[in-house]
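The data are set out underneath:

___
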Amino acid sequence: MVVPVRQLGLDDLCVHQVCLSGQCDFVSSLANLVAAGMKRTALWNPMIETCGEGQALSIWNDSGLIAESLCVAELFAGVDTLRAMLDRADLFQARTLVLITGGLENTGFEGGIDQARTSLPELLAQANELARPYNVRLAFEPLHPMVCGHRSIVSSLGEALDLLDQVGPANEIGLAIDTYALWWEDRLDQKLIRAGKRILNYHVSDWLSDTSDLRLDRGMPGDGQINLLQWRTMLEQAGHSGPVEIEIFSRDRWWKQTPESMLNRIRDSINVAY
């Protein structure tokens, strides 16, 4: 077994708010995270929307938690929507705003996916310029090919790196690396080295061999097929020293458990499963 370079503590752990979105609302998710001793989270925009931005912000400011990111903005949603998401990320003092392309459903590209792909360098350059005045970094996230139609048309780390290179040397957009989305890709160690300091967020969950839903049945670290300790070693060799962000959508498994049991499992698996 390849042993990761560093031993993680709670300061190195970020539990994404979406992990508790099946059992909790915005308020109770934060309360459970704090009660479990967590220091960091990634904010889930649909939960903010349901709560209402004003109330959510007041509760957030009292929580004492650190926002590693706000998820998620979509390139194809347009400049006004991206600006609103940057405003929100800045308001909640999130370190990054995670950015995906969005799917083909509502793009209006008559040329289909090929035309949509051709548009990406220009759209990313626009996003880069839009984000410059903010104290928030954009973290571009490639997703699994299974969601190409409705979530992201960028389905590999290699493709994402090529796109960011096309935007130019002044490009400040970084990357969100997701094990669930990218575990299948070849030569990952080389591509992660190439990504280097562009890696801003590292999302972790496991791929279950008997998955019942390709999006909503992510596995708890250690329960699936991904060697997450090896993944962390590769990330650290690429220069990433930021938190490990646990991001689990689990409609039929963990969302039927109590928040306490889910958070205990995540905490007890540090340095063992990931």
Observations:
- The radius of gyration is 18 Å.
- The chain has a mean pLDDT of 95.
- Residues 39 and 261 are 18 Å apart (CA to CA).
